[in-house]
Amino acid sequence: LDRSSAASDVYKRQALHLFVKALVISISWCIFVSTCYILESRREMEEYSKYPVDIISDIAEETGMGMVCFLNLDTLETESVPGASYGSYECGDFDEYYQEVYRKVEHWENCVRIDPPKPGESFGIVERFILDCIPDDAGIKKRLWKAVSERKPFRNFKYVIDGSEYRQKWFDFRRIQLERLVTDYLNSLDIDALAE
Q: How many CB atoms neighbour CB 143 within 10 A?
């Protein structure tokens, strides 16, 4: 009996070791694929955008948090203030700062305002992620579709994705999609980047 118990323990440890090894390989592969995807997207954006990628990335990050960005086309300087989604929050000590930002951008001769994505655009990013980035056989895919089909879809999606192996992939995908939205918007204005 002791022999079979000891053998069983050895098999359990070996199985656990193999499982952990497979998990590490899987996570490493996901990181590698995400890195390749990011690098390829950066190269595409450099070719497609009239503006430097770092400026696009900064604006995308700010608008992704619900901020309204202003871009000075002469200097490529950016400033941000809370967007409409911040309307229910008290800014307190920052109110004066944001008033200074508005006064500053009023004096920019060539200024573009970039608003945060509309809810429909944000929801489209979530849908594309589930559709394109989660394998059909992954159990989480059904849970994500269910999460976004109920009340408070963004909160539900965040709850499911945060505890999953796809969390970093989501952040990378979302950042790239936000950068594309910003690039498409700026390119649609048919103005050239003036600062070099």
A: 18
Q: Rounded to whole angstroms, what are the CA distances from 44 to 37, 48, 60, 102, 183?
A: 11, 6, 16, 33, 11
pLDDT of residue 172: 94
| Strand-pair category, 111-114 with 78-82 | unpaired
pLDDT of residue 33: 54
The residues of the chain scoring below 50 in pLDDT are: 38, 88, 195-196
- Can you tell me whether residue 52 is helix, strand or coil? coil
**Which residues make Cβ contacts (< 8 Å) with residue 92, sequence separation at least 6?**
none
d(CA 55, CA 172) in angstroms, rounded, equals: 17
> Do 115 and 187 form a contact (C-beta atoms < 8 A)?
no
Mention every residue, 6+ apart, whose C-beta is less than 8 A from residue 105. Answer: 70, 72, 79, 111
Secondary structure of residue 163 in the 3-state scheme: coil
**pLDDT score of 98:** 82
In 3-state terms, what secondary structure has residue 113?
Answer: strand
Closest CA to 63 of 125, 117, 138, 141: 117
pTM: 0.72
**Residue 67: CA atoms inside 13 Å, Cβ hemisphere, count?**
17
